[in-house]
Specification:
Structural class of chain A: mainly alpha
CATH class of the largest domain in chain A: Mainly Alpha
Largest interface: A-C, 20 and 25 residues
Distance between the termini of chain B: 55 Å
Order of helices and strands of chain A: HHHHHH
CATH class of one domain in chain B: Alpha Beta
Order of helices and strands of chain B: HHEHEEHEEHH
Shape of chain B: elongated
Number of domains of chain A: 2
CATH architecture of one domain in chain B: 2-Layer Sandwich
Oligomer: heterotrimer
Number of strands of chain A: 0
Helix content of chain A: over 70%
Largest sheet of chain A: none
Radius of gyration of chain B: 27 Å
Distance between the termini of chain A: 63 Å
Number of strands of chain B: 5
Chains: A mainly alpha (about 160), B alpha+beta (about 190), C mainly alpha (about 350)
Radius of gyration of chain A: 20 Å
CATH architecture of the largest domain in chain A: Up-down Bundle
Shape of chain A: globular
CATH topology of the largest domain in chain A: Four Helix Bundle (Hemerythrin (Met), subunit A)
């Protein structure tokens, strides 16, 4: 049962990810991306990481993609307004995309053997354990991340201000 | 100052309690909930009708006398009195044998009131020397058609044995008033 | 055993769904009645006794109306919009605890569809998806008014979600759990969270108004500026779905407010007179719905009292008042926990 759900979700995620790239209309791309996020959230739930799944949906599908959609609707992108892409630009995109793929494949090579999750690990994704781990073992990286966010916020406010001395 | 409720507008800084708006919102909520329990002003119209004054000036009636003969003599005084010029009529002479239908020798063959022009002032009633036309407390039926709103004798004349009650408008005081010099022509026989 | 479990859950789902829709339908009637009463009128009174059949008449009217799909719009997305709005509105009901469990023959049946251990986050996730129904519908209509309404809606909902989330964080700090079932159970007796989190409650309920697009935050559909906002191009039952989703949202928001801040199914002093857990559970349903109805009434009461905000006032309120205020609330809560607890 779980296996079939996994196959279905994986199929959905990959298919919609391809549709993000191939669909002509940017709004459709965003909507396909949302479907992808939902499929990934489904994977998290299969891994018993409910907190991660919920946060994934709230943050990515609920907030970031809404902003994407917002911007795309505001700009009203379509064929006429599409900027002209030169051959060099296309070539550079292909090369960088290819390099990124090589990096991904290379990183996958090291983790061929996935350890089976045992029963004791089943609750690893639950919020209580997650909190314990975050605030005990990974306290410093967690706080660093929040400082990073704070910096980003300050930067955003700075950019948003019109009059700068 | 017309009322004692007017407030002088002052452009002063709002106090803290004014700036958080909560007292104002709660005050507003109390006002609305007070209205929630108030007696409602609605009258459930077709089932219940608003109580009308006995001297309400609604649709006209052309009275008939106790034998069912028309009182109107087509003298035209109502048409002259009408400030909206809503009344038109054509007089005709009574033929022998029609005494049951018309009380006097002259009668109105056509008597029309344009209900869209009429302002329901009641001057026609004051002008009438024969107590033939009265405004009643009946509401005028509406129509989607202008032509239907010109009421002829078919709609105005009261039916014999189905009299329209006008006693409230024809009180003693009114009769007394009608005997006034100004309405000399009005004196009752 | 497993099939019994599934049957029981299926019954729960259907019952909650039907009750939700029924209450939403009668909310439309109640809205008109409350509006009328506040304005010294009597409201709908011709369909059935006291106009009680009015929602059915309205529904039939909606179904019978001509279905118009604009020629230029994207048909699939045009239909997807109201469906999503309705779907997300109905999904939230799954985690709300309606009462304490009923025990029959030693088997405990919780009156809650599912007690996820991240119930609050689930609600948040679904609510944050809810904005897509409006955005997609507004965009697919290919109409400037619709698009503006959709943009307003999304900007408003994102802004108020932040303050709402921050106010809930303070609540979670005091409760120590994200499960709605546990939060409701903790508030037995007088321990209603509103007593511990008055500021958080104020922020939460205001944000709930904004999330439901209710007056005074109904700018996405404000008639005076945007015709109908995001549902300008919709007709027939698709429009009905949008309007209906608003009322379902209102019902669910009321249930969440009652659960999070007003003790859910708990009522003080009742435990002294009634000891049988099953009777207590049934009474719990009654109390829960009494609270829910009160908040639905409160939603309407506010709507017919306070006029609509201007858009800059809305954003000012959301970003520059509620977000700092909710962060302050978190700090105060943390201080309170540090001083008074343990």
């Amino acid at each position: 049962m779980t296996l079939y759900i996994f196959y279905f979700l994986s199929f959905l995620a990959i298919l919609s990810a391809f549709m993000v790239v191939f669909s002509k209309n940017p709004v459709h791309s965003v909507l396909y991306l949302i479907v992808t996020f939902f499929a990934i959230a489904g994977h998290y739930i299969l891994l018993n990481a409910q907190f991660l799944a919920a946060v994934h949906i709230i943050v990515y599908a609920g907030a970031i993609m809404v902003l994407f959609l917002y911007v795309i609707m505001m700009l009203n992108l379509n064929k006429e307004t599409e900027p002209h892409k030169s051959t060099y630009l296309k070539l550079a995109a292909t090369v960088s995309g290819g390099i990124f793929m090589v990096v991904l494949i290379g990183s996958l090579k090291g983790v061929e053997k996935i350890e089976n999750l045992n029963a004791a690990n089943q609750s690893a994704g639950l919020i209580k354990n997650l909190g314990h781990v975050l605030y005990n073992d990974y306290m410093l990286p967690f706080e660093m991340a929040s400082i990073l966010f704070l910096t980003a916020m300050v930067g955003a406010v700075l950019l948003g201000k019109n009059e700068l001395k | 100052m017309l009322t004692n409720r007017s407030k002088v507008v002052v452009d002063k800084k709002m106090t803290f309690s004014e700036r958080i708006y909560l007292p104002a919102i709660i005050g507003g909520l109390f006002i609305t909930i007070k209205h929630f329990f108030k007696k409602k002003a609605t009258i459930d119209y077709p089932k219940v009708t608003r109580e009308m004054s006995g001297v309400y000036r609604g649709q006209h009636v052309l009275k008939v006398d106790e034998n069912g003969a028309e009182r109107c003599v087509a003298c035209g005084l109502c048409a002259v009195a009408c400030p909206a010029e809503a009344i038109t009529m054509t007089g005709a002479e009574r033929k022998p044998g029609e005494e049951k239908l018309y009380r006097e020798e002259k009668y109105a063959a056509v008597y029309e009131i344009n209900m869209l022009r009429c302002i329901y002032c009641g001057l026609c009633e004051d002008a009438c020397p024969k107590e033939a036309i009265f405004l009643t407390d009946r509401l005028v039926e509406v129509s989607s058609n202008r032509d239907d709103m010109i009421f002829g004798k078919d709609k105005l004349k009261e039916k014999y044995f189905n009299e329209v009650d006008i006693t409230k408008r024809l009180t003693k005081e009114v009769i007394e008033f009608k005997k006034d010099k100004f309405h000399l022509h009005n004196q009752m026989d | 055993m497993v099939s019994g479990f599934i049957i029981y859950k299926a019954i729960m789902v259907v019952v909650v769904f039907l009750i939700g829709l029924g209450i939403a339908a009668y909310s439309t009637y109640a809205e008109r009645k409350v509006a009328a009463f506040i304005q010294d009128r009597i409201g709908p009174n011709n369909a059935g006794p006291y106009g009680l059949l009015q929602p059915i008449a309205d529904g039939v009217k909606m179904f019978m109306k001509e279905e118009i799909i604009p020629d230029v719009s994207n048909k699939f997305l045009f239909i997807l919009g109201p469906s999503l709005a309705m779907l997300t509105a109905c999904m939230t009901g799954a985690v709300i605890p309606w009462s304490s469990p009923i025990v029959i023959n030693g088997v405990s049946y919780p009156l809650q569809i599912t007690d996820v251990n991240i119930g609050i986050l689930y609600i948040f996730g679904v609510v944050s998806i809810g904005v897509y129904g409006i955005m997609i519908g507004g965009w697919a209509s290919n109409n400037k008014y619709s698009l503006l309404g959709a943009l307003r809606a999304s900007a408003q909902m994102i802004s108020y979600e932040i303050a709402m989330g921050l106010s809930i964080i303070a609540l979670v700090m005091t409760t120590g759990t994200l499960s709605l079932g546990e939060i409701a159970a903790q508030q037995a007796g007088w321990h209603w969270n509103v007593l511990y989190q008055p500021l958080g409650f104020l922020i939460f309920i205001t944000c709930a108004f904004a999330e439901c697009n209710r007056t005074p935050f109904d700018l996405p559909e404000c008639e005076t500026e945007l015709v109908g906002g995001y549902h300008t191009e919709y007709s027939s039952m698709k429009l009905g779905f949008y309007l209906f989703a608003e009322y379902v949202n209102m019902f669910i928001s009321s249930a969440i407010i009652a659960t999070l801040y007003f003790g859910g199914y708990n009522m003080p002093l009742v435990g002294r007179f009634v000891t049988d857990p099953n009777i207590l559970s049934i009474l719990g349903v009654v109390f829960m719905f009494a609270k829910v109805f009160f908040f639905i009434f409160f939603f309407m009461w506010i709507r017919w009292t306070i006029p609509r905000f201007r858009y800059d006032q809305l954003m000012h309120l959301g970003w520059r008042i509620f977000i700092p205020l909710s962060i302050l609330n978190i700090l105060l809560t943390g201080l309170g926990i540090l001083v008074f607890n343990k």
